[in-house]
């Protein structure tokens, strides 16, 4: 390790820290223009270290960039899980299932697109729209007729989804041949399979992947969320295993030969750039913050605090659980899409149920119910486990990286012993912080009690 | 009341309410009618089925039989949140605040059904969200001020002393904008000074919010001091009804509380 290496490593660490902290801080109580400028600066810090060359290579090489993208996608997954587990109190191990669904959905859309088949995009896009409308419409009807059992509702939604899927496939068959000639082939891309149109398709693919994951979570969550928290955890573990099995057999029992089953899907265009990763990360953070700091967010937390009391306060507990589960899965799906397009290769082993503990560890480590804790923990986790340990141990010999999985749990243990509530507990930094509201001027009439003296009881009527 | 010919509809009518837990008969053939503005006490020894009745009124338990009508309409088969939104607020025997949320948030959650903006408004932080959220917060703060809780609005509920937690819980139940308030042993675990304050508070909220109150209580001081009518239960059945004076002299009540033979001794 030369001096330049140490210097660049320092620059990298400072850049990432500055980025994470600056992003959250700048989005705080500052005015709108300061926020926009601050976001651009946060974006620019990383863009700078990606582009600036020192000694012939950029400060952020491909490996570091991969880590950064991994951290971004994992942040979305972990934030989603924090919404489900940390804020709503539903212990879920299904996050990697939705992560995988998002990754495979988005990858399939863009893979088909660059190989001259527009059906992927059209079928999924029309599918998620029709299913979304169907769910919305059916909900209105079901709300009108009270007392329909959950399983009956589930069956109705399932039948509706299957019908919507069939319709979507036919729409795909109808429209795709008109677009296909414009796509060219993999070797000779057509007008729509490169440049800005491809970026638009990528954007749509990410959105579709997220919404598809959210709709899946709706169907799965509707019957399962009636279970208590622990049983829900087991059921979601089962969901991850089912999704993983489907991925392993995607070319045999599912009609997706391009996914190549257990051999892994190769040839996914590497479309994830720092721009996309950044935009979606900021979107996810802002959307989640806005949900948490709203009336709906407070009801989400009330379900975690005391379900019975929440029901007695007029909170629709079943609805609240379903919404937080869907939003959490939406984030996981988006994260999966970002992940698939930076790594370019998807293997079912990545979405193994054992790895589904990763976001759980991050969320507990960062603090249940703390968004900034989750963000800090994800970046810390990624750069510590993958970056620091792998790099550090890599210099000590070929067998040394195996020690990673000894040092990592030991570190976790130590931190959890020192701070059992997680890194940040339930506190937040910057704009995620709950604004303390000042007490207002007291009205004249006040209740008798320990603070008010007895004279205020008179003259009430 | 007799002089006014206006027909007042009862707030709550319970007829033949029955609840079995497996083979255990918790409540049997329970009848109750509450007129608007009444402050009615429901007393009885431990295990008499009082809280079970509360849980059936608020929809947490499904009755095995019988009928519950609120303002002339049946509320059987409705979800607890629908019953609350219809106008029945309650407190719990063992305080059930949201411990890790601030006092203000505890009250603001009760305002949720009347928030006036959807989650999509919140996600986009549009002007509707800004206006409605500010309005909601101000309402909640005014509400806390009525209960002298505005100075502790940013405290976490779990950090409050016991008496304050009771006040917050009553405030939160009232923030649901109920017409009927169910108080489940509000004086449990309070010292005599706090009990006096609590009785003043109950009188105050009834006058201020034009409420009808159904109260479960063990402390005879509270019940005899503030209730106009009392219903006494034992083993899931009503054993006596009447004014505090009548109840005090009722041999069946004395027997239920003190055991057989006590009535003759008294």
- Which two protein chains have the largest interface (Cβ within 8 Å of the partner's Cβ), and how many residues from each? A-B, 48 and 66 residues
What is the molecular shape of chain B?
globular
- CATH top-level class of the domain at 12-95 and 179-265 in chain B: Alpha Beta
CATH architecture title of the largest domain in chain A: Orthogonal Bundle
CA-CA gap between termini of chain A: 82 Å
Would you give an account of this structure?
The complex is a heterodimer of chains A (461) and B (266). Chain A is mainly α. Chain A has two domains: 1-60; 61-116 and 184-432, ABC transporter involved in vitamin B12 uptake, BtuC (Orthogonal Bundle), CATH 1.10.3470. In chain A, 68% of the residues lie in helices and 2% in strands. Chain A has helices at residues 3-26, 32-51, 62-87, 95-114, 119-144, 150-183, 195-224, 229-248, 274-292, 295-305, 307-312, 317-343, 357-366, 371-394, 404-418, and strands at residues 53-54, 57-58, 265-266, 345-346. In chain A, the strands form two sheets. Chain A has a two-stranded antiparallel sheet. A two-stranded antiparallel ribbon of chain A has the order 3-4. In chain A, a hairpin with a 2-residue loop joins β1 (53-54) and β2 (57-58). The longest helix of chain A has 34 residues, at 150-183. The radius of gyration of chain A is 24 Å and the shape is globular. Chain B has a six-stranded mixed β-sheet with strand order 6-7-8-3-9-10, with helices on both faces. Chain B is globular. Chain B contains eleven helices and ten strands. In chain B, 40% of the residues lie in helices and 22% in strands. The model of chain B is unreliable at 1-5 (pLDDT under 50). Chain B has 266 residues and is α/β, with parallel strands linked by helices. In chain B, α3 (103-110) packs parallel to α6 (162-175). The interface between A and B is large, with 48 and 66 residues.
């Amino acid at each position: 390790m030369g001096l330049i290496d140490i210097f660049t490593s320092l620059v990298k660490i400072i850049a990432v820290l500055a980025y994470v902290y600056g992003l959250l801080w700048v989005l705080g109580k500052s005015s709108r223009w300061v926020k926009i400028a601050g976001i651009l600066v946060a974006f620019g810090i990383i863009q700078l270290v990606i582009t600036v060359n020192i000694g012939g290579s950029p400060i952020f090489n491909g490996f570091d960039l991969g880590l950064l993208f991994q951290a971004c996608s994992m942040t979305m997954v972990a934030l989603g899980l924090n919404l489900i587990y940390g804020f709503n109190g539903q212990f879920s191990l299904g996050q990697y299932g939705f992560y995988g669904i998002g990754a495979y959905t988005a990858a399939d859309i863009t893979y088909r697109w660059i190989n001259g088949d527009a059906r992927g995009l059209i079928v999924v896009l029309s599918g998620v729209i029709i299913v979304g409308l169907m769910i919305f419409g059916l909900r209105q009807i079901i709300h009108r007729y009270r007392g329909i059992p959950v399983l009956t509702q589930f069956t109705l939604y399932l039948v509706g989804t299957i019908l919507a899927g069939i319709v979507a496939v036919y729409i795909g068959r109808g429209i795709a041949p008109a677009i296909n000639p414009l796509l060219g082939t993999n070797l000779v891309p057509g007008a729509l399979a490169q440049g800005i149109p491809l970026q638009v398709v990528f954007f749509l693919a990410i959105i579709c992947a997220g919404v598809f994951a959210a709709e899946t979570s709706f169907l799965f969550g509707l019957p399962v969320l009636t279970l208590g928290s622990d049983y829900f955890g087991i059921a979601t573990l089962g969901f991850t295993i089912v999704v993983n099995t489907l991925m392993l057999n995607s070319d045999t029992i599912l009609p997706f030969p391009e996914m190549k089953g257990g051999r892994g899907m190769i040839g996914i265009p590497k479309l994830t750039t720092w721009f996309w990763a950044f935009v979606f990360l900021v979107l996810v953070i802002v959307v989640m913050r806005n949900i948490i700091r709203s009336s709906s967010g407070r009801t989400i937390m009330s379900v975690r605090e005391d379900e019975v009391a929440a029901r007695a306060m007029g909170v629709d507990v079943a609805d609240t659980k379903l919404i937080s589960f869907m939003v959490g899965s939406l984030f996981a799906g988006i994260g999966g899409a970002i992940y698939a397009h930076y790594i370019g290769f998807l293997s079912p082993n990545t979405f193994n149920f054992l790895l589904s503990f990763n976001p759980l560890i991050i969320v507990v480590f960062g603090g249940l119910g703390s968004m900034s804790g989750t963000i800090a923990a994800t970046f810390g986790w990624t750069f510590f486990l993958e970056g620091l340990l792998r790099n550090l141990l890599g210099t000590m010999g070929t067998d040394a990286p195996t020690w990673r999985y000894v040092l990592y749990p030991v570190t976790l243990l130590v931190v959890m012993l020192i701070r059992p509530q997680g890194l940040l507990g339930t506190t937040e930094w910057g704009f995620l912080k709950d604004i303390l509201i000042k007490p207002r001027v007291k009205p004249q009439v006040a209740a008798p009690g320990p603070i008010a003296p007895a004279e205020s009881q008179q003259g009430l009527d | 009341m007799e002089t006014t010919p206006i027909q007042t509809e009862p707030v709550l009518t319970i007829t033949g309410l029955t609840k079995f837990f497996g083979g255990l008969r918790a409540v049997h053939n329970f009848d109750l009618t509450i007129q608007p503005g009444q402050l009615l006490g429901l007393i009885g020894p431990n295990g008499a089925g009082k809280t079970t009745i509360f849980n059936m009124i608020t929809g947490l338990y499904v009755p095995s039989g019988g009928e519950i009508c609120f303002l002339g309409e049946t509320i059987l088969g409705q979800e607890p949140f629908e019953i609350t939104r219809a106008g029945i607020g309650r407190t719990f025997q063992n305080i059930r605040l949201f411990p890790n949320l601030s006092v203000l948030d505890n009250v603001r959650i009760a305002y949720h059904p009347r928030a006036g903006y959807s989650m999509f408004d919140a996600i986009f932080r549009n002007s509707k969200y800004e206006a409605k959220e500010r309005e909601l917060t101000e309402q909640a703060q005014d509400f806390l001020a009525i209960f002298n809780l505005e100075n502790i609005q940013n405290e976490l509920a779990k950090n409050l002393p016991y008496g304050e937690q009771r006040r917050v819980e009553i405030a939160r139940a009232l923030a649901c904008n109920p017409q009927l308030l169910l108080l489940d042993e509000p004086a449990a675990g309070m010292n005599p000074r706090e009990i006096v304050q609590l009785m003043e508070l109950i009188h105050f909220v009834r006058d201020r919010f034009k409420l009808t109150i159904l109260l479960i209580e063990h402390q005879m001081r509270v019940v005899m001091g503030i209730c106009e009518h009392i219903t006494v239960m034992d083993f899931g059945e009503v054993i006596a009804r009447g004014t505090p004076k009548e109840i005090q002299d009722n041999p069946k009540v004395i027997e239920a509380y003190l055991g057989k033979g006590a009535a003759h001794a008294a």
